[in-house]
Task: structure prediction
Amino acid sequence: HWLSARWMDNLFCLFLDRENMKEGLKTILKGIDYIKDGKSIVIFPEGTRNKGEGVQDFHAGSFKFAEKTGCKIIPMVQTNTDCIFERQFPRLKATHTTLAFGKPIDINSFPKEERKKIAAYTHDVIVEMYEKEITFFLFKYGHICYTFIDILII
Result:
């Protein structure tokens, strides 16, 4: 696992410790610094791998990066990802996936009281994208494993 840990470190990956509030805050502050330094980050707002159960609830804390930096949120949906790894662990397998990007969401365009609802708003946007991508993927390939629900913060 040292190779994957090194690789993730070089990609500036951050892992949120939900059990330790102090460490979780340090991680969020580090992510905010990354954004201020011009790095984009990807957030998985469901907080877990989605195994095809549709779009799960989002953790509102995932949106702290956008709130604190004013950066834009780019909704993303990637389909059929478990066919790459999970279905034949520990091997990797080439497979078809799609990666769809939604329209940027500018948190600053929302009135201050509405910004508290940005997680729900983004969730609704991603649900719509997810349904569209699933329909396309099933039509084109006839099957689907499961999807990633991502948010790109730039």
